[in-house]
Amino acid sequence: MDDVEIRNRTGSLHFIRFPTSEMSNFLSLAKSKGMADLVTAVCATGGGAYKFEKDFMHELNMKLAKFDELDTLIKGVLFSELRNTAECYYFHNARNIRHSEKKSYDFSKPYPFILVNVGSGVSLLAVYGPNNYKRISGTSLGGGTFLGLCCLLTGFKDIYGGDYARFGLPGDLVASSYGQMHNKDKQGKVSREDLANATLVTITNNIGSIARMCALNEKIDKVVFVGNFLRVNSISMKLLAYAMDFWSEGSLKALFLNHEGYFGALGCLLQFNNSDIAEYIR
Amino acid sequence: MDDVEIRNRTGSLHFIRFPTSEMSNFLSLAKSKGMADLVTAVCATGGGAYKFEKDFMHELNMKLAKFDELDTLIKGVLFSELRNTAECYYFHNARNIRHSEKKSYDFSKPYPFILVNVGSGVSLLAVYGPNNYKRISGTSLGGGTFLGLCCLLTGFKDIYGGDYARFGLPGDLVASSYGQMHNKDKQGKVSREDLANATLVTITNNIGSIARMCALNEKIDKVVFVGNFLRVNSISMKLLAYAMDFWSEGSLKALFLNHEGYFGALGCLLQFNNSDIAEYIR
């Protein structure tokens, strides 16, 4: 993200990611590069901020500055949308999944909106203003479920970086996910790709269904989906766009953001040192 | 169900069940016993009423009298509750899953209520009167998903009749179902029982979460769970009772019915020959 000004400094923001299972490698690298000589604290949010606090102290002699997960998420979303006009998009022609296309969306008047954060698990927030939001629902069936089930079902040990795009797209309505899989004849006929696809579609549809109910409940027509589950995962995004459009008969809009999984990190940066961040968000 | 009067005949209703994968055995038995000499039509509902229509005609020369799945479900529920005062119950002390207990519930003033039918898939209805209801939501993650996923995950080919009760009960809140299962070290440490339990808890919690949102949406405080998924499945029922009570802070009541999976069949019987069933339900 270029030409970003934060606390009178202008520059580019770069985003990288790694699974927390690689944290010990990160700590070794940071130690060898003398990271603690440059900074004394690292901003962190989410469960990892608590889980790895001791390791940062012991290995690097650095503090973790911990921030609230949902606060930072929303601050990050609002900041990035304001500073990066190409941030928000939707899928044009959402009912035709194979041919739906990304289009820019003007999110300059954001409120109210539903924010669905799909990480390992899923949180759903209703956002009425920069400091006015509530967590309205959640589900434990998220990206972690997809990865875990996929590995269990397909026998692959690790599918990070796997090529999601090779899985086909669903044609028909599903009455019962995996519903035939107790039948041993049918079990023999499914491929690993079928199982991975079924898992992706099942998890995605469930999230879409819950998001739609929450939007109805709150009488809000914009639903913004973020989180690392959506990274390089156009199948899920297109499915979510389709599901929102179809089940709401066009009255709900599924929106997506280009920096889908980094808003918590960005929000941490903005909140660091308790600086007044009101100026950064509308 | 004893001392039931239907069209001036009084007797006991007996309920039996078998999976539709056994339908050819049922047809053979019916043929050998001369079932077609006694009756000319069998009442049926659900997808099977369409799927097996030809087989009944070819094998037995019998018609299937097909009835709407949701109509018969509701008629069956209302009839059985009216004729069997011990039909409806709840779990007392729902927050303490290990010690919660079945207690009779007076369902004589039923309306409005949410009806959650957990079969292979799940349908959620808002019921305002005997002929006034709407389907408000549904999910494909139901009993079929549990059976299918369990068989895929545990390697068992068929777990019908499996002893669900041996699976343990959950203690902690789950952030991401199966969330650690992409980690090969952790994958090696889980047993088949753990995986079956995780599947049961995941499916059940998801159903509970959707039911709660629907109840909020419709401003209805009674949620009746039925369907064959709940048969000999006190773990799921207690989990649902716990989830409803906990997440609603006591304002939602989870109710259950003793003939959980037979209301569609009962509703079919009542509707057969287009008889006026108004007298059978309140």
- Per CATH, the superfamily of the largest domain in chain A is ATPase, nucleotide binding domain
Q: What's the arrangement of strands in the largest beta sheet of chain A?
A: 6-5-11-10-7-8-9
Strand content of chain A: 15-25%
Largest interface, C-beta closer than 8 angstroms, per-chain residues: A-B, 47 and 46 residues
Organism (chains A, B): Megaselia scalaris
Protein name (chains A, B): Pantothenate kinase
GO cellular component, one term (chains A, B): nucleus
InterPro entries (chains A, B): ATPase_NBD, Type_II_PanK
Short description:
Chains A, B: One of its GO terms (biological process) is coenzyme A biosynthetic process. Chains A, B: It holds the Pfam family Fumble. 2 copies of one chain form a homodimer. With 282 residues, the first copy, chain A, is an alpha/beta fold.
List the helices and strands and how they pair.
The structure is a homodimer of 282-residue chains.
Chain A (H helix, E strand, L loop, with lengths): L3 E3 L2 E3 L11 H10 L2 H4 L2 E5 L2 H4 L1 H8 L2 E5 L1 H15 L4 E5 L8 E4 L8 E6 L3 E8 L2 E8 L3 H12 L29 H6 L2 H27 L3 E5 L7 H14 L5 E5 L5 H9 L11
Parallel strand pairs in A: 3-4, 7-10, 10-11
Antiparallel strand pairs in A: 1-2, 5-6, 5-11, 7-8, 8-9
Helix pairs in contact in A: 1-4, 5-10, 6-8, 8-9
Organism (chains A, B): Megaselia scalaris
GO biological process, one term (chains A, B): coenzyme A biosynthetic process
InterPro entries (chains A, B): ATPase_NBD, Type_II_PanK
